Amino acid sequence: MMQTLDQGGSLSLTGASAPSQTQSIPQNPEEMRKAAKQYEAFFISYLLKVMRETVHETGMTGKDAQYFYSFYDQEISNRAADAGGIGIAKMVESYIEKNFTPPPQVPRPGSR
Known about the structure:
Blueprint: E1 2-5, E2 11-14, H1 29-53, H2 63-82, H3 88-99
Antiparallel strand pairs: 1-2
Helix pairs in contact: 1-2, 1-3
């Protein structure tokens, strides 16, 4: 999943799809942690973007600096999530662990 900036300056995810009944929870706990951190980083980045929109535009915060700030916010959010974040990743992990059980392991034919 990758964050991109469209022409309007909005942050969007590429490679993301709506959850469906057929998608399964990652089997590997590391994949789950990585996905939770990515979600937290996206949330923090969006939070920074929305907070920045409340500041009146001046020469430094106008349209010219919009792209710079989007990349800056993305990097800050990634570093914040890697450093422990604001607790969203831990909350997502604990929710998944409590409410979803991994699908049963079915042995493959010919393996023992």
